[in-house]
TrEMBL record:
Protein name stated in the entry: Glycosyl transferase family 28 C-terminal domain-containing protein
BP GO annotations: dolichol-linked oligosaccharide biosynthetic process
Subcellular location: Endoplasmic reticulum
PANTHER family: GLYCOSYL TRANSFERASE-RELATED, N-ACETYLGLUCOSAMINYLDIPHOSPHODOLICHOL N-ACETYLGLUCOSAMINYLTRANSFERASE
Family: Belongs to the glycosyltransferase 28 family.
One Pfam family it belongs to: Glyco_tran_28_C
Molecular function in Gene Ontology: hexosyltransferase activity
UniProt keyword annotations, A-Z: Endoplasmic reticulum, Glycosyltransferase, Transferase
Keyword Zinc in record: no
Gene3D superfamilies: Glycogen Phosphorylase B
Amino acid sequence: MIFVILGTQDKGFVRLLEEIDRLINDGVISDSVIAQIGHTKYYSENMKLMDFIGIDQFNDYIKSADLIITHGGVGAILNALLQHKKVIAVPRRVEFNEHENDHQIEIVQEFKNYGYIQGTLSVNGLKEEIMKNNEFTPKPYKANNQFFCDQLAEIIERI
């Protein structure tokens, strides 16, 4: 199952859903797709769409998913990484009236550069990222507090 996360931004992200729909119709995506779409107005016969869901259900969908396709929000990316999920991120863009600024571009680029996620700056690159997903092995992500605890444990062991 693929879980798509668009977050709670008050602007739509129709481009991403249209591309996922196209990839389903073209046979590139054969898994079932469940999408949390927030304020995005969209209809699809190919995906199960939900606007807003509770945190428990949200986390259950992440746990059940084989792949997360998400907007470039830090919260969504980290939620998936902390549950050891493969992530493909696509940033919302100002030029398409999907956000107030383009900070998601930098977020996606940084997480991708560190090897934690796959990402594409354009929905047109989503097909390529999906095709490479089976070969992609993400670098394990450690939250800072986990890193701190590991470092502290090493110090205590040396004492």
